[in-house]
Model the fold of this input.
Amino acid sequence: MINLLARADALDTADPLAGYRDQFLAPDEFDVVSYLDGNSLGRPLIATAALMGTFIREQWGGRLIRGWTDSWMEWPLQLGDRLGSVALGAGPGQVAIADSTTVLLYKLARAALAGSPGRKRVLLDTDNFPTDRYVLEGIAAEQGLELVWITVDPAAGIHPAQVADAIDEHTALVLFSHVAYRSGWLADVAEINRIAHEAGALTMWDLSHSVGSVPIHLDDWGVDLAVGCTYKYLNGGPGAPAFAYLRRGLQEVLRQPIQGWMGHRASFEMGAGYEPAPGSRALLSGTPPILAMVPLHANLDMLAAAGIEAVRAKSLLLTGYTLDLADELLAPFGVEVAGPRAPERRGGHVTLRKPGFQALLEPLWAAGVIPDYRRPDGLRIGPAPLSTSFGEVYRGLSALRDLLEK
Amino acid sequence: MINLLARADALDTADPLAGYRDQFLAPDEFDVVSYLDGNSLGRPLIATAALMGTFIREQWGGRLIRGWTDSWMEWPLQLGDRLGSVALGAGPGQVAIADSTTVLLYKLARAALAGSPGRKRVLLDTDNFPTDRYVLEGIAAEQGLELVWITVDPAAGIHPAQVADAIDEHTALVLFSHVAYRSGWLADVAEINRIAHEAGALTMWDLSHSVGSVPIHLDDWGVDLAVGCTYKYLNGGPGAPAFAYLRRGLQEVLRQPIQGWMGHRASFEMGAGYEPAPGSRALLSGTPPILAMVPLHANLDMLAAAGIEAVRAKSLLLTGYTLDLADELLAPFGVEVAGPRAPERRGGHVTLRKPGFQALLEPLWAAGVIPDYRRPDGLRIGPAPLSTSFGEVYRGLSALRDLLEK
Done:
């Protein structure tokens, strides 16, 4: 254990991103010793609190309705483009910030399916995040589609060979998560896209668990559609708006079904008949959630400054160190690693498994250690690279070890 | 004019709600002489700015993921119930805060139509807010429904007799706005509901332009479904989340189509197969927009303290005074009142019309006077009762008069 602690110190000393930790809010009354749930809710930046105060006073309070023409009307696409450039590998005009991940997933899936007449199958995996499965189940029931379920090992994820086996000329759409929410498995997006496109299917990726921690190259990978949330590694705040990507070449072809005034070609003409706006603005429906987008400005600045490749490098060190701690401190108590070990298959979090973990959640919280619990027996350790030190991971897993020992 | 100014002073002196004006944020650099656009974007409360700072520091930053079990999971329904009680005349368990008005309108309309098999017509009016029309056009095109358009005078609104003429046994749903966004016409909800129900149709009301300024009695009026926004008279901030009402008796019958994890019976079981939650939770889809709901806490406190009946009483004085100013100061320059004059038909705003109004918008803003412009030739004067003085209305319309004189 002394060795492991010394290693945390050495890793922290050598960490080129260590300085970013000071940019996060740590309230005076902060009782958190080790926050390991950056994969569920990212911490707020000091700049976010300041920016929100300024926004409420100066923009909402001072500019009032003029804010819409000043800049707010452009925020969904400007922030979308910025996100595309900083984290998604997406050229301009393809990303919009809006709604929730669930609603955007619905909109894009409906658009994709309406654009694939004659094809009645959707390929997805049994261990995708619940909302992804539920949304598609709802659409399938309404439209008489067949959902083709690929069974994956919950401790792993989707393999290209499984997709190749299950896909056929009736497949309209494949939907997977880039990083599996449970195991942290990092899918081979480019290869799965290649297989899907060979069969003539469209591809949709849920990026919620990868965006801001794993480099994404939507354009290069040939992704057709993607969605994701901004409240995990992007630190957007609880229930922050989501984002959608629709590849430029599909924008004139695919139409999302919730025709609202903000997706209209000319929102303020208020005329008869919906005419979709060109480009990614047609992904919008209702009034954009401006107030809730304020944090994104600060967060994208920080991510742009740090660089997603540097974030990934630290993330791999953090998850590697987590695996070592698990092996040395926790395995003796029967804790298993329920996810990939190979760096090229690891997302930003590590899942540990042991029957009875649920009972440890309360004492862990009481000790100021906050991992993420997933039924029935999983603890997810998600050390967000920009806000988490190696020492923090050590303190968290040591506390877990101490509880297991009791 | 001296007489009108003296009347403003007298009305302000006698105003029992005058003290609430001091609870709104007025930044040092505030350049606004007269804000007459409360019907488009309500002003922020001082308490909102404080509450947001506290929330970011203590709840998001301090409690982190624990906030979900502390209270956030209940916010959409708790705030919904509170809104129901303070402003909607809705008993508990029927209102949820979520999404945008457009998305909720889509969800409820789809639910209503799926629950009305065999009926293929939807009744709506040509002058409803664009998003209401566009959403229904999209659904109708997909599902082969017939939209039956009632043509209304844009300076008035929907009459019960028009509904009675147009409705029949094929009508599944009628959709109208409680207060017409353009003219400010206040519809007779109870009577239109009676007519619709007699024909066996469901009723949906868009409350965006009435909530927080006109008393609403959803339960007593027999409304089936309703939606509305919280960024106008409820001061929720730009793009604040919306609300939906689904009458208790319909909750086991009507199902909205966007099946997300937060509408599931047990969100964190993450099991196979969507099972809707009981009650109004099934209206939710994605992760609730918690950060964006923070202002609502402060705003509902204020509205509860002031009381919606007192707000309406002041609103009628404000719009009555606006009409007098229009008649005495503006009519000589060819300005017409393009909306109802009778108090029982007036919503919270007054619409003035004159060709060429668009050109006055910039000089009005330059003079610190901010009304709302609606193409082609309308200025909406929307004095929010809790934040607007009679003197402010006087200053605004006097400035308009001066510009017309030039």
Chain A has two domains: 2-45+307-405, 71-304. The first strand of chain A starts at residue 34 and ends at 35. Chain A touches chain B through 85 residues (CB under 8 Å).
